[in-house]
């Protein structure tokens, strides 16, 4: 077994990593956005000495008369229709409190889940007492945002069969700004793994479910042992996702697949080394540029 | 903002390792993390680091009225401040349950143990007495705030000097710091709190839990003791039952820890007193020296390389020599310089042995042929024996 030691100064600097277009309007906290008083101030700004300042680090966005700063690193702000992955934190009356890396815990109402035995059943006292049998503290679920309440708290639902409790797999946490809103967030990759890209930055990698005929409402988790080849694929995917996130690349299924293919010539654990990660991401970037142009 | 909860895998991993007598940072079950005590320039200011947990305690005093029920005693206030600076889950202003528990335990430790002589704080019986206030600010929370806070509070109380008071019949003069030297508080003894955390229904016990271990613990016991074997505080929280001999065993462990820590406190106080009397630089600024290349470096971490197989990789050689240096007490190689000799292949025969020559024929004296052959054979035999020992150990 070998121990790797490397110089801190030889780490690739942040400036070398960014290859995209210059957005031009990045501000840092305290920067003056405008001295014009005709604008309304939105999120991420504050007024001082008749000047509009930015209070977070991000890009300036202007909609007619409203100026706001969209932060680069932030907690997840939910929109209706987003797919999120969360962890059950606690049980409350007729609801579960779910942790989704947002400012407040999200809420999963008992009436928003699929109970076994059909959809149109009324929720009774018995169901409330059996809540812990369906989902208990520490469980991971995939859900969709149904509603955003006035204080910013999200209300989730798992009313479709593709949502529900997550079984065996690997969770990767990245910044929410790296996951774009797309048509679908559930991808079955051809390499034998499925990936769920949650909008809140939580990414779930699991082996592809073999039979699609499971219609149990998403609460039965498949606890059969996962074969070693699948585990290796999942581990490699996880390292690829982390490498892409470190280099601040936007995550979607194509780039994750490209990263997987580019990483095949390294061992799985070598992908954790910074220089290998940078190389893999460079290859992905080049390939994406080729295909894009 | 609430903290991200620990995932099920992490929880099971930590518990499984504890059941096999292993901790995440490699400590033994009864080991404390590195303890560092520093005093500030102002009297009564003490900063304690226990691993990454940092607590600052400040003692101040003012003259006020004594309590109605105790006209001959001074008054001691103890306050623990948990701010979002320590941990994002602490809220500013509002006292959480954890904050209330900490405040209460610190109060009990300092007040009910009667470590501070309250009668000496009285100026005029029934009218004027000293109000001593200990403010404890938690700067960083990485587990076990309580022990850190108790060390900081006691050190600050021992470091503090109050203004001198002289009584002339009916006249009372409180001298300023310029007129007369301030007087130390009279501390009878130093009560310190030691935290024990329990796992698996009391089967496994750890001292000085880190923040991750605190999240998976089932129960906690806090023992307050001083080095004279006097028990000052005892509190058990959590969902578990303890046996009598467990409690006794914990108190004897607490005694050894408290004796060691009290020695450390006295040493730090002596160092500070000497630095002040000699007129040298003292205070927190001394700890942070910005003009050295090694500023902002991490503390030395010892890497256990005994179980690694002997291979031709020079990386192994690097880590071996690192270990050897640590053993010989030489200044450790900076992380920066270790990357330079990556290209050279260093073959270490046994751990901790610095081989000077590389074998081969001697170039100093004219030695007849047979002897050099014998020497070479001996050297080869030594090498092979050493290799075997290296692999076998």
Describe this structure in words.
The complex is a heterodimer of chains A (293) and B (393). With 293 residues, chain A is of the alpha+beta class. Chain A contains six helices and 17 strands. Chain A has helices spanning 14-17, 125-129, 131-134, 228-246, 253-263, 274-292; strands spanning 26-27, 32-34, 40-41, 45-48, 51-54, 58-63, 66-71, 83-92, 95-99, 106-113, 140-148, 154-158, 164-165, 170-173, 186-189, 193-197, 202-207. In chain A, the strands form four sheets. In chain A, strands 8-9-10-12-11 form a five-stranded mixed beta barrel. In chain A, strands 1-6-7-3 form a four-stranded mixed beta sheet, with no helix packed on it. In chain B, helix 3 (145-159) packs across helix 5. Chain B contains eight helices and 14 strands. Helix content of chain B is 32%, strand content 22%. The longest helix of chain B has 35 residues, at 244-278. Chain B has helices at 8-19, 97-112, 145-159, 211-216, 244-278, 314-328, 335-338, 369-392, and strands spanning 35-39, 45-50, 53-64, 75-82, 122-124, 128-140, 161-162, 165-168, 171-174, 183-184, 192-199, 204-207, 219-225, 231-238. The interface between A and B is medium-sized, with 19 and 22 residues.
The name of the CATH topology of one domain in chain B is Ribosomal Protein S5, domain 2
Cα distance spanning the termini of chain B = 50 Å
Instruction: Output the structural class of chain B.
Output: alpha+beta
Mean pLDDT of chain A: 85
What is the second-level CATH architecture of one domain in chain B?
2-Layer Sandwich
What's the total number of strands of chain B?
14
Instruction: Summarize the amount of helix of chain B as a percent range.
Output: 25-40%
Report the end-to-end length of chain A measured between terminal Cα atoms: 44 Å
